[in-house]
């Protein structure tokens, strides 16, 4: 069993990611937080997104299908997790630092996966924007409430745990670490109850009922087909390639 990354090593990797985030934002200055629709924003970068309900341990991967840049995301996860997974895969594309299919279980052990996850968090929750929001909303971080963090989660379209960890990163000597507890997977039902009790939106935790494919992907396939640039078997090959990447084929 590999060792969990030490706190010191995580801080070092986080600083490396800061530089990557700065470079990314210089290259794509139109991407500014809070990002209300990660699907549309990433499609605006020229990606096609394919979402499918699969085993919960798999988060996603990115793959080039011919001339198409594609990101696969697991639709069995709630939207907060999907947003994180999408930007995680953008990191792999942007840096060329790639491995295999991304899994939640690897983020605390694998340096590359940790950096991808940290990048995604910093794109969704711009740390300067978070600091500004704390000041503008007159929040005392030492006494920050669960309700405050839920409101921040909805503002940034990120999970409760993602926001809590970002706060701990910025205010390590101020935030009560117990504030992270409500973001644990084992406490998810309690988190939803807290949202309901305080009449707060929790649609970020909805799990979509349907699979997804970027409309422009279908449009491009149709256009290529009309122009005689697409073989009848191409779409089937695309789907078979995805199944092969996911190891879903039987036999």
Automatic annotation (TrEMBL):
Residues 56-166 form the IrrE N-terminal-like domain. It holds the Pfam family Peptidase_M78. It comes from the Bacteria. InterPro entries: IrrE_HExxH, Rad_response_metalloprotease. This is ImmA/IrrE family metallo-endopeptidase. It comes from Macrococcus psychrotolerans.
């Amino acid at each position: 069993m590999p060792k969990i990354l030490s706190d010191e090593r995580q801080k070092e990797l986080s600083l490396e990611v800061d530089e990557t985030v700065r470079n990314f934002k210089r290259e794509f200055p139109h991407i500014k937080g809070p990002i209300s629709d990660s699907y549309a924003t990433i499609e605006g970068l020229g990606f096609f997104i394919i979402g499918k309900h699969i085993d919960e341990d798999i988060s996603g991967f990115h793959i080039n299908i011919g001339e198409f840049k594609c990101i696969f995301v697991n639709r069995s996860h709630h939207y907060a997790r999907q947003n994180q997974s999408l930007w995680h895969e953008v990191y792999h594309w942007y840096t060329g630092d790639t491995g295999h299919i991304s899994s939640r279980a690897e983020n605390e052990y694998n340096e590359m996966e940790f950096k991808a996850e940290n990048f995604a968090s910093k794109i969704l929750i711009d740390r300067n924007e978070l600091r500004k929001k704390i000041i503008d909303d007159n929040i005392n971080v030492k006494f920050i409430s669960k309700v405050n963090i839920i409101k921040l989660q909805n503002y940034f379209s990120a999970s409760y745990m993602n926001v809590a960890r970002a706060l701990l990163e910025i205010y390590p000597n101020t935030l009560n670490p117990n504030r992270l507890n409500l973001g644990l997977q084992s406490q998810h039902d309690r988190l939803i109850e807290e949202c309901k009790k305080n009449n707060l939106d929790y649609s970020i935790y909805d799990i979509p009922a349907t699979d997804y494919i970027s409309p422009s992907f279908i449009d491009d396939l149709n256009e290529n087909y009309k122009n005689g640039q697409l073989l009848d078997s191409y779409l089937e090959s695309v789907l078979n390639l995805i199944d092969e990447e996911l190891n879903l084929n039987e036999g």
